[in-house]
Amino acid sequence: MAKEEKEFVKEITPRSQDFSQWYVDVILKADLADYAPVRGSIVMKPYGYAIWESIQAELDRRFKATGVQNAYFPMFIPESILSKEAEHIEGFAPEVPWVTEVGKEKLPERLAIRPTSETIIHYMYSQWIQSWRDLPVVLNQWCSVVRWEKATRPFLRTTEFLWQEGHTAHRTEEEAEARTLQMLEVYRSFVQEHLAIPVIPGRKTETEKFAGAVRTYSIEALMGDGKALQAATSHNLGQGFARVFDITFLDSDGQLKHVWQTSWGASHRLIGALIMVHGDDRGLVLPPRVAPIQVVIVPITTKKAKDEVLERARQLAQDLGKRFRVKLDDREEQSPGWKFNDWEMRGVPLRLELGPRDLAANEVVLVRRDSGEKISVSQTGLLDVVAEVLESVQESLFLKAKRFLEENTRSVSSYDEFKRVLEERRGFIRAGWCGESTCERAIKEETGATIRNIPLEGSEPHGETCLHCGQPARHVVYFARAY
Length: 483
Known about the structure:
By secondary structure, the protein is of the alpha+beta class. It has 15 helices and 23 strands.
């Protein structure tokens, strides 16, 4: 490998040396995003935005399969509307930016730039919903929101971020709960099947639930440094917002009733999760289903066979492009070795190399990004072989991440053991909890670990005691330090 190619690889800090710096290096060097002039904001560059488009397209497809319709609501929320739900606004108040004047004129009422859209959407629902025949209302919007975070990190916590937020209204409590859990399952299956990230679905504690919700559910993932990441949430809002905003309907029995509501969302922090779960010291490692480029073709030419190799490379790109997202890298100013490093850093799942010898043998060399494995295969039937390899890469990445999750999830029976594991190891810690917020707060204050969720399965205690107070446990929960 040439000296310039060795230095090219060294531009990324090793994960084991400084995980946080490695994360930022990958984002910048792989051309996903750059810092914007506004504190805590980023510019998503085309390659990074293409990943978001893939996430958006697949999630949108899954949403619509459950009856969701897309809409769009204003980003400006009058203070009188935002402040109607006291518990809700209290949870966001420190992060809300306000518009107070236009030009040189002061506005008669402050306008919040949305931190989330419950209040403005529920105000509109109160205007639209009159009868049981108007229900259910199942809407989603793709937009950005603004939260003036004190500590920011690209994709994980930014001042402005892209997301989707679903908001529904239902006739009964049972319908609302069913929709809440249905959307949690949509997120779980999407993140595991499309992003190859294993997650733990569960219910948040009263302390950790969304402000204004009756119940909050989440899917929790484990990053490469052993910290947890909340990947998506789904909230049963009960009738709290409906009562505040007077969202009522005349039911078929002639009674005027309040609707039951839900909200649910996921953001571009999923891109951060992709980086931290699958990335390595060479950069990104993208699952094929979400990768903007699934196959990159790198022709290896000589003066004698240049035209023939390039012609065949272009034909292969055209053929493969009928089924896959393909890039032909025919840049003449860069060496093949430089290109290999470049596309490895960008996480392209499969590289196809074609040189004069391959041309003569009617073969190509396939190189997997996840394992580095190289195989020579015939150009005949190549599309089916590529499809099989990409599916194998997708499955391999999920199984690797699942093994990491399992190997870094530990059960403990005492507080001393809990603290020791938290300091010496990493990952999720499974332990009993009495259900009291006093113990939950004490553990957080003393260790920095929070209850990530109460799992939907396996949360029933079988003789366990509370990690902190020693009283009989009401639940077995997952603790972790988190982003």
